[in-house]
Design brief:
The strands form 3 sheets. Strands 1, 4, 5, 6, 7 and 8 form a 6-stranded mixed sheet that branches. The protein has a 5-stranded antiparallel sheet with strand order 9-10-11-12-13, with no helix packed on it. The protein has a two-stranded antiparallel ribbon with strand order 2-3. Helices cover 49% and strands 16% of the residues. It folds into 4 domains: 103 residues, no CATH class; 144 residues, 2-Layer Sandwich (Nucleotidyltransferase, domain 5); 78 residues; 72 residues, no CATH class. The chain is an alpha+beta fold. It is flat, with a radius of gyration of 31 Å. Helix 5 crosses helix 19, helix 6 crosses helix 7 and helix 6 crosses helix 8. The chain is built from 19 helices and 13 strands. The structure holds iron/sulfur cluster. Iron/sulfur cluster binds next to helix 15.
Length: 487
């Protein structure tokens, strides 16, 4: 058994302990390939002039933005994002002490810096993506796109429609008038006793809370009126009621979209208030292009993104897409070939020579007209084909409820069929399969390993900045791995 030193040896006062000597010690204990060293190195190379310019030359000098940025980047990379916890870490964790050079900013300083520098943090995200490009660590041509719903910093109970808010307002107003009556009674009592009653303070607090709530409800009703909204969350107006993937709960949150390269580097990250993924393909591809200044040649996404508009966009932009449609699974598994689906439109064969369709009973459906459809947000055209021999058909009851079968084919249908065929090839299958282990583990890591299941900040702009911080955290860890592999 080995010996131990006498206890008094450990009780000796540390002579000459200065921040410099302590930093020397910390520097010695942190491994050379530690993430905090990389964070420092990266932040020191970033252009932070735009953040620095926000500060005044007057008054007390505060922490340099590079120190606070490295604190946030390292915190978000390792799962600490609360400003109070970050403040505490600056005192107790060697890695944070190394980054902050023994300084300990107050939690208010950290949260104010984060809140006021979100635009600059977005530029830092782009700069970090470009560092990957400069180092040759990422192949931007091929991207994988996916989205995940992250809960907003708001309670679902506070999402209401106009009627809900009006009822709430009435209730609050009744409570306020009740409290005012109570206050009058207290005043009378005080007049009689000639001294103040303790409950007056409590009453004042209750009254001010309800008055504040009343003003917020009124403001929410005005926003709903102006923007013609059916529902709104009182705490975070931008958080949209949406269903998280795989969960039955509908909560106020954001649809967070990411585009990732083959190597697992996030090159675009945007939080949207639109729960529908279909509308996100074009914006995220364009964001990927602008962040990297490189062309996107190939894009893979799941069936949530598969619609005619997106197929048309991919075709126009000359991007090789691997994006199945909502019914691709049925197509792949041969569901439409089953007898019960005999009269499904996919079983009608197109005859290009006569521009008509042949039904499963061998009868012809001729082109009749092109129907133009328009909604508030989009416009689409259908070619209508009409069956001419349906009146005498013995299977009509199985095929249609009207006198003649009408086949409505979107004019972009060939694009959908082309995509389905491509995804059925061996190459298409392999490329689509790769999506599962390229982008999905990133969301898994962010939400389940690191535990970012909800945002801390409120409002679309701030949430977007916070999502960038989460993505920066992932990218910095990825960079560390890549550097280690390359060494
Ligand atoms: S109803 Fe018309 S389209 Fe349908 S199977 Fe009979 S002939 Fe063909």
């Amino acid at each position: 058994m080995s010996k131990f030193k006498a206890l008094h040896e450990f009780q000796k006062p540390l002579q000459c302990l200065t921040p410099e000597s302590f930093l020397d010690y910390v520097n010695g204990v942190i491994p050379q390939d530690h993430l905090c060293r990389l964070v420092k190195e990266i932040v020191w190379t970033l252009d932070t002039v735009s953040v620095e310019e926000k500060y005044s030359f007057l008054g007390q000098r505060t922490y340099h933005p590079k120190l606070l940025l490295s604190l946030l980047f390292y915190g978000y990379a390792t799962g600490t994002r609360s400003s109070r916890k970050l403040e505490e870490k600056c005192l107790s964790d060697h890695n944070y002490i190394f980054l902050m050079r023994c300084y300990k900013p107050d939690h208010r300083t950290i949260s104010d810096f984060r809140k006021n520098s979100l635009k600059e943090i977005e530029s830092c995200f782009v700069e970090i993506v470009r560092i990957f490009q400069k180092l040759g660590f990422t192949n931007v041509g091929k991207i994988y796109i996916d989205g995940t719903k992250i809960k907003g910093s708001a309670s679902a109970k506070r999402t209401k429609d106009r009627e809900g808010f009006s009822n709430w307002l009435t209730k609050i107003e009744e409570e306020i008038s009740g409290l005012l009556e109570e206050a009058e009674a207290i005043d009378d009592e005080e007049d009689k006793r000639c001294k103040s009653v303790e409950s007056e303070e409590l009453l004042k607090k209750k009254l001010s809370k309800r008055t504040y709530l009343k003003s917020k409800i009124k403001a929410a009703l005005e926003v709903m009126e102006e923007e013609n909204l059916t529902k709104l969350n009182l705490t975070d107006h931008d958080a949209h009621h949406m269903k998280a993937g795989g969960s039955k709960d509908i909560r106020p949150g954001y649809n967070c979209q990411s585009s990732v390269t083959e190597d697992g580097v996030i090159i675009a990250a945007e939080a949207s208030t639109d729960p529908n993924d279909c509308n996100q393909l074009k914006p995220i591809i364009e964001k990927s292009r602008s962040n990297t200044q490189e062309a996107v040649k190939e894009a893979t996404a799941d069936s949530g993104y598969g619609n005619y508009t997106n197929y048309e966009y991919l075709e126009e932009e000359n991007i090789e897409g691997y994006v199945p449609d909502r019914f691709f699974h049925q197509y792949k598994t041969g569901e439409y070939e089953k007898e019960k689906n005999r009269y499904h439109y996919t079983n009608f064969k197109y005859d290009s020579s006569t521009e008509s369709y042949i039904c499963p009973e061998g009868k012809r459906l001729e082109y009749w007209k092109t129907r133009k459809n328009k909604s508030k947000t989009r416009q689409w055209n259908h070619k209508v084909y009409k069956g001419r021999g349906c009146a005498s058909c013995t299977k009509r009851a199985l095929c249609t409820k009207s006198k003649e079968r009408e086949l409505l084919i979107d004019i972009r249908e060939p694009l959908l069929q082309k995509m389905r065929k491509k995804l059925m090839t061996e190459e298409g299958k392999a490329k689509y399969y790769k999506r599962q282990y390229t982008i999905e583990p990133i969301f898994g890591h962010i939400k389940f390993n690191i535990g970012y299941r909800s945002f801390l900040l409120r409002g679309k702009e701030k949430v977007n900045g916070e999502f960038k911080l989460m993505s920066i955290g992932w990218n910095l860890k990825k960079l560390l791995q890549m550097k280690a592999k390359a060494a």
